[in-house]
User: Fold these one by one.
Assistant:
Number 1:
Amino acid sequence: MRFTRQTAVALLAVAALFSATACSSSDDPATAEKDVEVFTWWADGGEKAGLDGLVAQFGTACPDFAFVNGAVAGGAGSNAKSVLASRLQTNDPPSTFQAHAGAELSDYINAGQVEDISAEYTEWGLTSAFPKGLIDNITVDGKIYSVPANIHRANVLWSNKTVLAKAGITADATTLDAFIADLDKLKAKGVATPLALGKDWTQVMLLESVLISDLGADKFTGLWNGSTDWKGADVTAAIEKFKKLLTYSNADRDTYDWTDAEKLIMDGKAAYQLMGDWEAADLDAKGFKDYGYSVFPGNTGTFQWLADAFVLPKGAKNVAGTKCWLKTVGSAEGQKAFNVKKGSIPARTDVSSDGFPAYQQAAMTSWKGDKQVPSCAHGSACSQGLQGAIVSAAGKFSTDGDVAALQNALAAAAAQFAAKK
Amino acid sequence: MRSWKRPWLSGLLLISPSLILLGVLVYGLIAWTVNLSMQDRHNARESKGFAGLDNYVNLFTADINDRFTHSLKNLLVFTIVFMVGTLVMGLIWALLLERGARAEGVFRTAYLFPMAVSFVASGVVWRWLMNPGEGDDAGGLNAVFGGLGLDFLQNPWWTDPDWGMAAMAVPAIWQLSGYVMALFLAGFRGIPNELREAAAMDGASNFQLYRRVLFPQLTPTVLSAMIITGHMSMKMFDLIMSVSGAQWITEVPAVYVWQTLLTSDYAKAAAISVFLLVVVAIVVVPYLIHVNRAEKRS
């Protein structure tokens, strides 16, 4: 008897274990049709404020639907991405999710997880509201899969005005050679590390800016669509310049995140830092006023963009609701509500710059007139796999400075991931 | 109903839940991973077919910058420094305590305690201690060395391209030495006193006592300590992620799996995982067999 009772208890325990996992809450059908679950990694700070602004606009524009916040915090989006991947694999997509516009979306497009919304682009007038360069960058085989909510600029050079003034630098350099001359001046004045730099991905950003300077906007974009050869002599020359720039940077760069490098600027230990324009909002938030900004030397007239965008997942439960959300995201009102608070600029060119801070007003002007090129470090130019390979190669280059090895690795990565499409 | 009374059947039924769970969640998933590692599946889409051992071969021949062999080299440096470090430190502490130190319990706890701290928590602290800045920018241990006038001791820690992984092993040594010490102490205590007395009767010096009598008895302890620290080291992930984050200089296979998985290259991630599993098994399984036989003999 003793054994059988134990057996029963054991069986019961196992049964309880299985039933606990099997039991899950079912959606109430009445509210499910109204709900629009928006999956993001915007959980706090300016991003959350921007999302709130967008939600308020959504409430006005789409009174039939209810916003449900599906934000997953942490890890600069990597936590959210892994949650999203598992939800997409189990065919349980949110109504819409956040993704970087451009090539990073190709993983979802190739997997057939997002729908073509080119027809809606025409219907909502987005085709003419967004600059042509952006439309070209996000069109894949004639189809568009996402609505950008904002635009950030990657190729901005930030500086500490006092440090520059002490070294007698009054004008922004407009060529790489002039920039290197300025860095030499700073070094001569005792600034040990004139250029503040962080770990691998921030080095990729710097490399990309140097490539834009040396190759020009069109050939740079060609690197990502296969029309420019990574093995060319012009790329070698650019990598050599990148190597030279590294010599002006802090030796412990691989231990730094971008905010650590930013602190070198704030402390006056470094003069320059290349970083995306989220640095403006961050410096403002930290109360540092003595900063200047200019486009990276040699990048004048080129706007290297990255964007957060929303998509229509295949199998979304509430397609009408998702489309209303996407329409709000793409609308002038929605873009303004979101971007004023997030510290980025609208992707549309017809939004009035009134009410935006000074840096953003300047960026909005450039966005209209400049040539748009994508960014690999931030996913608009390359898929996640290619990005991972390039970031790793940059990390290696930071330790060994082997120009030929970096160029070979970049070429091999581009070839490998182009073949995988 | 007679059969229900048979003790072996009840026993089997009792352990069957754990057997089933283990079978599905451990061995079933290992089989699933092995299968995945032999598929042509390098993005979020379905597999494009069976690829045999291609993914394994590619790790060694077609990986950009030889990234995988680089991660293995890093792991090798880390493992050797970690194993030797914990053995040496653990043995020294055990010898000190074994001699009958006063307040032995306090010291034992103090040495053992770091093991209770998670690798993530200690990693965050060691990240700061091993700040690679030198001279005026020095922080953490480098600043301490600078303050003591020992500037020559300042070093780049884990950012050194060749020996950085040796520095990465320092926090791990700090955490696990106490555990190895406990193993050694247990080993020393397990040696019958008669042996020591006999050695003393034969006029053995202290050195001879340890060298000829006690240390040979500790071989099984050393083996256990090496297996335990060795397999921990091969799976090292959390410490490295919190000290350096995922990046080239300190990449080991476990971190590489993570990076690969984030880019949806499922087959490659599975191949690295299986490779790691096989390497660990090569180390652990013979040991388990050995222990099993030893237990049967006694």
Number 2:
Amino acid sequence: MPDTPNPPIYVTDALIAEDIDAYLAGHEKKSLLRFITCGSVDDGKSTLIGRLLYDSKMIFEDQLAALEADSKRVGTQGQEIDFALLVDGLAAEREQGITIDVAYRFFTTEKRKFIVADTPGHEQYTRNMVTGASTADLAVILIDARKGVLTQTRRHSFLAHLLGIRHIVLAVNKMDLVGYDKAVFDRITLAYRAFANEIGITSFTAIPISGFKGDNITALSENTPWFKGPTLVEHLEVVEIGSAVDEAKPFRMPVQWVNRPNLDFRGFSGQLAGGRIKPGDPVRVLPSGKTTTVSRIVTLDGDLDEAVAGQSVTLTFADEVDCSRGDVIAAAEAPPEVADQFEATLVWMADDAMIPGRAYWLKLATQSVSATVQAPKYEINVNTLDHLAAKTLDLNGIGVVALSTDKPIVFEPYIDNRTLGGFIMIDKLTNATVAAGMLHFSLRRAQNVHWQATDIDRDMRANLKNQRPALLWFTGLSGSGKSTIANLVEKKLHRMNRHSFLLDGDNVRHGLNRDLGFTEADRIENIRRVGEVAKLMTDAGLIIITAFISPFRVEREMVRGMLPEGEFLEIFIDTPLAEAEKRDVKGLYKKARAGQLKNFTGIDSPYEAPESPEIRIDTTAMTPDAAANLIIDRLLG
Amino acid sequence: MSDTLTHLDRLEAESIHIMREVMADAARPVMLYSVGKDSAVMLHLARKAFYPSPPPFPLLHVDTTWKFRAMYELRDRMALESGMELLVHQNPEAKERGINPFDHGPLHTDMWKTEGLKQALDLHAFDVAFGGARRDEEKSRAKERIFSFRTASHGWDPKKQRPELWNLYNARKAKGESIRVFPISNWTELDIWQYIARENIPIVPLYFAAPRPTVERDGLILMVDDDRFPLLPGEVPVERSVRFRTLGCYPLTGAVESEAATLSEVIQEMLLTTTSERQGRVIDKDGGDASMEKKKQEGYF
């Protein structure tokens, strides 16, 4: 056993034994602090957390027995207890001896209850730290006293600051290994202060500790007579929690669920994201902007006189005002902004890089919309904090971007309100959470461009032409026969007096898309523009035919999403690669094979075949004419 | 500055928020109800989340036919009180083969619970299932997400779990996939007890000490809850004052000797005790160190 100069965090065993009710009454009033510990593998982070759990008696005898056995078997501390083993969870990690994900731990002291997010410090796991930091009020930045401020210290501090953590603790660990030398502690604190100022951290609390020996964790250590406190736990117990600050903000409640048990009751359920609310308070429902007053705050325990930030409640209104999930109920006189174009910082969390122009789902509070991101203005190197030019963001990449949503959302800058400024992005195909972001402000152009309503609508235009508009979207490998069949289809439609238009890939690149190249991002933008043009033309009542390789499922789905249900017909010209390459009408495959053409679909760039196209044409089993007839039957039938 | 909300207030608000978020994307949600104290708290929170509506999903009890009798009584009472539909699933194959904890060891849990749960979820095509697991229960659960993704075959792949930031949950899923949602992830055992006391939540009386007929087997004190308990030759049930810290199948759940007959006394004993909550369960120990994680990958909670 290491020395334990500390008294246990629970000094209340006597009280528990003698007067449990008094103890419980006190415990019930405790507040909750969520914090994150940041450190790299060797900083002793797991040891520190293990120590906090151990000292607060969160470790039971059976777990301790297992721990002692494990320590001897796989521990790194010889015959002594390896506290790190207490908190290393998944089997794979234990074998590797590192933690690779976010784990949450719980402990209680005399004054507070704590939830600790335990996150790894490797560079490739920025995403885990960002996750853990998103809910934390405080960050403990661990430094190995022997090593001082390292690259990862800067990274951790930057991320903590980025996620809006207001309280930073600099825990200079392993003081026992530098002889509890005050000079070492002072030097590290000074170096850190210089760096912290640079990134906008204005205050922090530095504490010399030893997680292994227990110095200055719960009680001032005799080994550091030069340090007057507070100890780590003392500091955690008194630091101000964000709740008071949140309650002082204007009232906001994102609506999660409309509560309608019967025709006489219509309530709006949600968790207050800021401020406080009383019956009689005037409120504004956004984005509609309609105003009303709150009549009741309904809970199972009876109506409340007041609710504050953090509480989950159900509100009723004095008037019948439209309000549904995704709306935000806000203080009438201080509503948040509504916009559809923003500047944001994005943290990329997926193995697949961000694709500028691609549509992703964006979830902010209870709002879900479709959003596209432009190429980053710059990427931030988390080690040097330099701003770098970037075309995309890779896993763990952090960048400042402009993004636009397909409809306006209610938001506040992240620094003002985490709930209304923090968002996640979701891949539309895999449903994976690919990014987290923080909105800074709306871009001005969003405020000045409005939709103009027209008197003649798309149905009237289509009726005049005596047809239903549609977009026939041909997709397939180069040389599969798309253009041939598309041409035949248009000729036949023309003969049938149908108003059509064939949007040809090459032709479009001579004009509208002259500025685009053949990078992945440009190809996506090419498809997006073609989709927008096709949409305008269907609004005009036309039958549009397009013939683009359009290799990516997500982009085809993006165009499908632009059009009314049923008007997008995906036509898969299914020609095997070998067959297309054999035909090689334009000689492109030959060039690609010779390495003269880069990013050629089927050769060195993937083709994602449609999973359930409206029409599939097997060109090895059908003539172009038969194919065209089949398509027309389907369109008009 | 003093804090308006206590830690219990915050935990309650968080759990309610989670339950309401599920309603946005779920097609057919269900609440797994095991009748234990964690389930009791979860059910209570659901009633709060949707009041004055009843919770908009049924309760599902995956029954092994070997629960304590007192559990069946409370289960039926709570279903009635909450106004929720109660679905009870018993694995027909396990029933037919007469699978029981005495003769079949780990197979009992596997067939009745793990397989039974998968069957019930498939049978009713539930896409989201609320569960009462907590992160403080066991090491591998400390890293469990609140929204935990399962493949179409109910498997759990640690690499496919999504990051959870702020209070934003991504509940989108492909056809056939399902989500287990753990709304009380951040509660500890003490929080659960304290909340039960604060909110007066009904729990199974077995949590309180009383004289009960017991036998001792392999270091565990087992309660002889009905006459299906096969006594060894010469074995006679002994009356002991015992209570249970967790409840499962009675032949697999160890009791602790105790005089704690009130909530305060139970909490007192818990705080002064020196063994962890799950120690009375046989299930954690099958298969060594990583057994819970292995069970999760197979589809057990």
